[in-house]
Structure formats: C-alpha cells, structure tokens
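Issue: copy button drops trailing tokens. Both records pasted manually instead:
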Amino acid sequence: MSDLRQPVIILVRPQMGENIGAAARAMLNFGLTRLRLVAPRDGWPNPRAVAMASGAAGRVLDQARVYPTLAEAMEGIDYAFATTARGRELTKPVFTPASAMEKARAHDGNCAIIFGPERAGLENEDVARANAIVTVPVNPEFASLNLAQAVLLMGYEWGRDHLPPEPAPHARRSDSDAPADRIEIERLGDRYEEGLEAAGFFFPETKAASMRLNLRNMWSRLSLTRGDVRILHGILRQLTRR
C-alpha cells in the first residue's frame, strides 16, 4: 500500500500508552503506518505503548508525529473523517466505515481518520474540524468501541481492497501437517485390513470383498496428513498389542 494514498490516523488526547500501542498494532495489521498523536496524556515517547505495539513499534510508533492541538495535527490534510458513536448537532455527511474508506480510496489527496480519547471520545470542537463523520452501525444499547477496536475496524475497511482475498498460507509447514501421499495411505489401509482380517471383521465371507472395497474407498476419501497417518498406525499398534 502506498504511503501517499493511505490515510493518516490521528489519536486525539489518548490517555493510556497501552491503547496507543494496541492501535498501532491494529494499524499495521492492515498496512497503515502514518500515525499522529495530539497531546497524549502520559507524554511521548511512552514505553507502555512500545511494549503493547510489539512488532508495530518500529514501523508505526517510531515514525509517529506529536502535536499539541488537533488543528496543528491537520497539517497537510485536505479531507478528514471524525469517528464518533454519538449524535451531533453539527451538520456533516455521515458515513459507515465501509463507505468512508471507499471515499478515502477514491480521494486524490491526504485523508485522515480522527479518533477521540478513550473515556469520552471526540468533543464537538474536534468534530468541527472534520469534513465528515464516521459512525459504526452497532448495537444501539451498547455502541461503545475501545480505541484499538475502532482503529482496527477502519483499518480493515481501508485494506479490504488491497489485501489478499483469502488468508495467506503459512510460510512453513511441518512434516506432520503435510498431506499424506497415496503410498502412505495405501500402507495404512493394508495394515488395518490385516488387523481386521485377524480379528474376524470381514464376515460373512460372501460380503468380505465388498467390505474391503468400501474400507479402501473410505481411506481414499479422507484428507489425511502425515501426522494423522502416524497416529492411526499408533492406534492400531496399541489395539493389536498382545
């Protein structure tokens, strides 16, 4: 994702370092790295934010810019969304996260998403500096989201057209997780057939051939890993131990 196109995340008067760090993690989950802080209550830099941010510390927190006021933090921003769950007397367009980020992706300039402090959210003076409001359609009886949740939700809507449509495969797969090949499954089927033969399972004789065929067909339908095959061999070994 281009740094020139991604929105700036502005946290206004955030109260706890841990919440700033959690918000940074949520940002980087969806490729967002441009963070601005307005008058963080506990000062900056904040070691608790770094600890909570984990791998996002270097890529987000270390690059964060700090401002004394929201007006100054709007430097270079030409369109801003204010996130709030409360009704406002201010007349502004109101978007859902999805429609807001669709507009942000189509915007040629610098967009910002403004988030308020944890306890009470943005004040009217903050919202007045935004072009539009973003409100999440949630349970009206409990509309509150914590700071990191709100950032995560907006980040997801921003990234949904840029990120892979399916979860990325793990870079490494252990031998146990690898699919069993046909020879391994054939050997497993042979061992079970031998064990069941010794136990008198294939009875009566007139049905033995079809029972063996159905059993072999069952093995071929199962999506077994190599670990699964080893477990099934172990089960049979214990059951047939004398």
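Record 2 (pasted manually too):
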Amino acid sequence: MDAPTGHVTLYRAGSRARTETGWLDSRHSFSAGAHYDPANTHFGLLLLHNEDRLVPGRGYDEHPHRDTEILTWVLDGELEHRDSTTGRTARVGPSGAQYLGAGSGVRHSEHATPDGGVRFVQMWVVPEEPGGDPRHLVRAVHAGERGDTVVLASGLERHRESTLLPLRQRAAALSVARLAPGAAMELPTAPFVHAFAARGGATLEDVPGDQLGTGDAARVVDDGGRRITAGPDGAEILVWEMHAALGW
C-alpha cells in the first residue's frame, strides 16, 4: 500500500473519542475499546495515543499485553506501575517516561498513587519483530534539559547514543520538545510525523490561521523541515517520527 504524500491534517482535542467512568477520563486519538472508527485505526506505526486522567488510588488493574511497545509520558501526578511478569514496581512522576516492551507476554497494572490523581499520555507502536523478553524501564527528563528536544525512546540508528529509552522498532522514535514562548523547533523529515501538543499551544509553518492548542495533534505525511513555534505560554510537544507504516 502506498503512503499518501505531502499533507498535514490537524486533529482537534475536542474531536477525540472519550471514555468516562468513575475513576477514568480517557481521550482517544485513534480507535480504542468501544470507540471504533475504521478510518482512524492508526497512523504510521502508532496504534494508540491516549491522554488519561486517573483519580487517586484507582487505575487499570492487572491485564496482559504482548508484541507491543508501550510508552508513557506523565504530565501531572504520579503513576504506579506493577509488573507481575518481571517483578518490577515503579513510580513515574511529572516529566517521566516509562517504557514497557511487552515482548512474548507481560501482565501489569497502572494506578494513580493514593495521595493524588495522575494525568499521562500513553502511546503504543508495533515492534520490529514479535516475541522477545518483556522489558520495563523508567527515565526522567531533568529540569536542566528544559528548552531542549529530548529523544525519549528510539530504535533509529542515529539515536543509538542519545535516546533515554530503547525501542524495539528501527523505524520509529519519540521525542519531547519543551519550548519557551516564541521558540521554534524543526519537525523531523520522515514519511509520518505525529506532533501532539501536551501543554500550551503552537503554530505550524505553512498552516495559516490554525494554532495547535492543548490536546490538538498534527499528522504530517511525507514532509520535512516544517517548523513548529510555541505560542505566548510556551508549549510541550510530543513528536513521533516514523519511517514505516502498517501495511507497507
């Protein structure tokens, strides 16, 4: 299947499907659970992109995964991860990135800590190959790195020495850019780029009159060098760079 070429599509925060329960408020960028849209099942290698809010002490009880690379970026509060397969327990705080490589199979749970709620973005991509041992790692982006673009997780060869977390997918990388008001970054050159405004707002070069607000995303296809500029309150942008797609 050939990829579409040379365009940008904006997806607004309010257009996302939403799951609400007594303990969860989840906004889905792609089809998830009961919210199925055959025209919006994935983008590139990205299968899931949820923004979740959990109330104190509640969350996802133990459940299984396999053959999925799972990345979590915590925005507010702390997320507690318990992994019954590898025996790991960890807490991830604000500006913390968690990697769970499900491999041949893993069972885990994720909850807000008892003393406060948590808000985080969770993202899934397909691995290069199925199977392998489960992996779990947590890394923090330190205050001294604010203003930089930090490679959170990558399988790209050029990030071998710079990524905080490994990714078992050689065609994908996730970065975070925390931009001061008016500061800009250049989006990577790739067949598929997904830029999500986790905080603040930004404008995208050559997309006149449209600003990305908090929770908005741009899906950029077959394009390179497009600049994104933070608005007056600054911005925190999660950027996926993908050099392959499902079905290629």
